[in-house]
Design brief:
Length: 356
């Protein structure tokens, strides 16, 4: 496979485009929710934005992790980005820990972020309960590291799902209230000149919240201990069929949207529409009178067909480790050049002695 020799997007005349940054944690194979709710949208953004996508491995160790698994999951996640259609010629694809500015800016931001801003983060409270007595300081600090990820790249927009909006709000508050308004140098008019760009959330297209196969009221998630609750992008066809066969149903005939008593029908019908490339109206009309026994094989077939090309690209990518390593090396270079400049700006504003 040819390795991308294109210029960095910033140097290739794309600087006027609004910049986007996003990332997913390498904590196991991505599932249909990650794909349909996040990565599919990133792919579309590549034509209109200057896109940075990282594999956030430093975030992955905020809960207990298996060292033998981390590097493997990082490669899997990066390869899945590419297999889903992230194009390294158009996007900067990199591993968070390869760019040391993330950890460094995180520390600087830590020292200006009030502890009580972190203690009220919903995701922290939820994850802390799950961890019991062994909660790391890193878990509390997770949103500050995420703020560093975003702010280092002067991102204009950050595509996030509902669950991450509070973290993005925190990144905005840190940039505006704790860095710009305290440390921005004063211009001739007495106003402070901003040091960090304050990012906006990018609300993703609706209808892409994928729910668990075993409970239509909770989100499909990598962290659900029941593997039958999710379809990963790497599940082989038989496993996909088996998981869909066992998916929770209800006693009613016919699939429909929007019945609050039937979250599973709503979820599986939405999945069918997305995977089969049908409009919601067309899918609803097609399946309105179908029993579950007819519908499930149809859904399984659509899922297998939608994932087949992606799985094929994934195996090609994994069989060429040099290519993937080169993509990540180039990504690291491009990302570092942007991130290091931002870090230098913040270091200077905070009064650190220059390194050069
Ligand atoms: P998980 O909850 O499975 O660990 P992450 O928190 O790593 O997933 O999420 C990575 C990205 O995928 C985020 O942008 C998130 O909003 C999106 N995402 C995760 N689960 C779903 C889902 N079930 N439906 C839609 N989007 C999802
Ligand atoms: N916290 C995000 C999630 O769980 C992952 C993430 C880390 C991220 N850093 C980011 C997302 C920066 C967007 C931008 O989904």
């Amino acid at each position: 496979m040819p390795v991308n020799s294109a210029q960095p997007p910033g140097a290739a005349g794309l600087t006027q485009r609004p910049r986007v940054l996003s990332g997913v944690q390498p904590t196991g194979a991505l599932h249909l929710g990650n794909w349909l709710g996040a990565i599919r949208n990133w792919v579309d953004l590549q034509s209109s934005h200057d896109t940075f996508f990282c594999v956030v491995d430093l975030h992955a160790i905020t809960v207990p992790h298996e060292p033998a698994q981390l590097a493997e999951d990082t490669l899997t996640t990066a390869a899945l980005y590419l297999a889903c259609g992230i194009d390294p010629q158009r996007s900067t694809v990199f591993v968070q820990s390869h760019v040391s500015a993330h950890s460094e800016l995180c520390w600087l931001l830590n020292c200006v972020t009030p502890l009580n801003w972190l203690e009220r983060m919903i995701q922290f409270k939820e994850k802390a309960v799950k961890q019991g007595s062994d909660v790391s300081a890193g878990l509390l600090d997770y949103p500050v590291l995420m703020a560093a990820d975003i702010l280092l790249y002067d991102a204009d927009r950050v595509p996030v799902g509902e669950d991450q909006k509070q973290h993005l709000e925190l990144a905005r508050d840190i940039a505006q209230q704790r860095i710009n308004s305290r440390f921005g140098p004063k211009g001739s008019d007495g106003e402070r000149i901003p040091i960090l760009k304050v990012p906006e959330p990018l609300i993703l297209r609706e209808g892409a919240r994928v729910m668990s196969l075993t409970d239509g009221r909770s989100k499909m998630s990598k962290s659900d201990p029941n593997e039958g609750s999710r379809i990963t992008l790497l599940d082989p066809p038989e496993l996909i069929s088996r998981k869909i066969k066992r998916a929770k149903t209800d006693p009613q005939m016919g699939l429909e949207f929007g019945n609050p008593e039937r979250p599973e029908a709503d979820n599986l019908l939405a999945l069918y529409a997305l995977l089969a490339g049908r409009s919601r109206e067309a899918a609803a009309a097609e399946c309105a009178a179908m029993g579950w026994g007819t519908f499930k094989p149809l859904l399984a077939e659509a899922a297998v067909a939608a994932l087949a090309p992606l799985q094929e690209r994934y195996s090609e990518l994994r069989s060429d480790p040099l290519y993937l390593a080169e993509v990540l090396r180039q990504g690291r270079e491009r990302a570092s050049s942007v991130a290091d400049a931002t870090l230098a700006r913040v270091r200077h504003a905070l009064g650190f002695l220059s390194r050069s």
